[in-house]
Amino acid sequence: MITVDFKRLPARPGDRILDIGCGSGRHTSAAYGLKKVIVSGADISMLDVKAAKDRLDYHDRLGVHGSGRWNLSVADIEALPFLDNAFDMVICSEVMEHIPNDTKAARELARVLKPGKCMAISVPRYLPERICWILSEDYYSAKGGHLRIYKKNELIRLFGAVGFRYRGCHFAHSLHTPYWWLKCLVGPAREDVSWVNLYQKFLTWDIMKKPRPTAFIDRLLNPLLGKSLVLYFDKGG
């Protein structure tokens, strides 16, 4: 499930791309499909980094890549182990809501991105996320859970304060919003509710098969129900 729109993130051969908080490597793998780029995936979880490695190894075996290179590391977004101005693009998808010191994290993202280059940030959208919090305390209080809910202008101010210029935004994954409301309603940890499991199977099928009708419905509903808010920035010179 790709949240970021790579058409809004121009990449040239030889560009270095950082996917921070890469998880199992979904955006790292998508970026690896760009022509002759160098993609670095980083996450604080060793288990997630291993899952990302397995995914990228699989892409290499299939030959579905852009003939570039990839590398992975365990890293904390509040203290990134990279040089200043090391990257031509930064992707930070569904990460900031987990970070205790988001100002420090924003400064680190600004530090490692080259001046004039672009960054994509995604977070849970305010209203769908707020409903999840109302429906279930377990949803946000779990270990490693969400610490805050952002409004768009809060993120624009946060990154503007460290030198980023806001370019635009969109919403994503409207079909996933009702699923999370249902999960929160019955209990996020429960796996024995058949109709919730059926919805999950539908979402998995949709991600794998990418049928045009559901893609159209998703785009149609995103302005109203999109689960994720995706913002694009440039770093000032």
What can you see in these coordinates?
This protein is α/β, with parallel strands linked by helices. Helix content is 42%, strand content 22%. The chain has helices at 26-32, 46-62, 102-112, 126-135, 137-141, 152-160, 176-186, 194-209, 212-225; strands at residues 16-20, 38-43, 69-74, 87-93, 113-124, 164-172, 228-235. Strands 3-2-1-4-5-7-6 form a seven-stranded mixed β-sheet, sandwiched between helices. The relative contact order is 0.15.
Observed structural traits:
237 residues; alpha/beta; Rossmann fold; 9 helices; 7 strands; 42% helix
Summarize the structure.
With 237 residues, the chain is an alpha/beta fold. It has helices spanning 26-32, 46-62, 102-112, 126-135, 137-141, 152-160, 176-186, 194-209, 212-225, and strands spanning 16-20, 38-43, 69-74, 87-93, 113-124, 164-172, 228-235. Helix 4 (126-135) packs parallel to helix 7 and helix 7 packs antiparallel against helix 8 (194-209).
CATH architectural type: 3-Layer(aba) Sandwich
The helix content, as a percent range, equals: 40-55%
Low-confidence stretches: none
Largest sheet: 7 strands, mixed
By CATH, the superfamily comes out as Vaccinia Virus protein VP39
Number of domains: 1
**Roughly how many Å apart are the termini?**
33 Å
Number of helices, counting only DSSP H or I runs of 4 residues or more: 9
Our estimate of the beta-strand percent is 15-25%
List the helices and strands and how they pair.
Blueprint (H helix, E strand, L loop, with lengths): L15 E5 L5 H7 L5 E6 L2 H17 L6 E6 L12 E7 L8 H11 E12 L1 H10 L1 H5 L10 H9 L3 E9 L3 H11 L7 H16 L2 H14 L2 E8 L2
Parallel strand pairs: 1-2, 1-4, 2-3, 4-5
Antiparallel strand pairs: 5-7, 6-7
Helix pairs in contact: 1-2, 4-7, 7-8
